[in-house]
Amino acid sequence: MGLTTSLKRWWRRATGGGSGHDPEATEEFATLTPTPPEPGRPRLRVGVVSVRGNYREHNEDNYFVPGRRPVRHDASSDSGETPAMTLDPPNLFIVADGMGGQHGGEQASLMAVELIPREVAKRIAPGDAEPRHVQEALREAVARVNQEILGSSGAMTEFSNMGTTVVLAQFLPDKVYIAGLGDSRAYRLRDGVLECLTKDHSLARALLDAGTISAEELEHHKFRNVLYLYLGSKDARSGPEDFRVMDVRRGDRFLMASDGLTGFVPDAEIGRVLGAVDDPQEAAVQLKNMALANDSKDNVTCLIIHVVAPD
User: Fold this and answer.
1) Which of 174, 199, 258, 279 is in the most buried spot, having the most CB atoms within 10 Å?
2) Is the distance from CB of 176 to CB of 246 less than 8 angstroms?
3) Close Cβ partners of 117 (under 8 Å, ≥ 6 residues apart)
4) Rounded to two decimals, what is the model's pTM?
5) Range list of β-strands (E), 41-174
6) C-alpha span between 97 and 143 (Å, rounded)
7) pLDDT bracket for residue 77 (50, 70, 90)
């Protein structure tokens, strides 16, 4: 599916020419070709929720979970009844938080979750687990989609200046590759210790890194949500700057979320819920509810992955 076709399909849906996600577009949600799981190899148990939130009129977040169409709700309609699903590595997961106005932001985040999996699948051959190859493939895939978004921003007035944050996790049989652009985050809980795996690309974080402000000032700084790097920016032409590459163990729990959650739920509470709630869908709903109760001003998307023993 070319860029022009993608724009036309999305615009038809956004302006009432269609409802929900285009059935044809689900074929574009490609990911790596699954390989038969080896005996004893861990599996991935996944839960996800995305809501418009308390104040926004529209949900500009999108996510990618293999085999599941994005389901987005207003603040009150999600009961958490969508069950968690179990997947085998290799698999890719994405959370994207759109910017640039209702239509532009949603289009940018939708392009991220539709196009990045396709571009990754083109570049990583089944069974290729060489870390340098995987990182380069992910970087090239994101850079390619960044180019597409930049091109799209000039194609229609409604999409001018659009962009999106993106955080992705590429699971292979024994490793996970984490990267992000913007301020959507990934965390890992292991042995009761919560670790943030991504770096916010905000002006306030840049000031902190330069020693201009303190960590205490960062939390409420006026530039905390002003991003200098995101998907759809010229500075992202080479893809993500940094990757976290780490082993995967049974018992690991990962969170990927937009800043509508991480900006309003303290890390201590994130760690507590990840550790205490054994069903990832229930945990995702609990964290979403906490963000809304803490008066989150943004859309809220929460994707949780548990590394579990094989059935």
Assistant:
1) 258
2) yes
3) 29, 30, 31, 64, 66, 92, 94
4) 0.87
5) 43-51, 61-64, 72-73, 85-87, 91-99, 163-171
6) 17
7) low
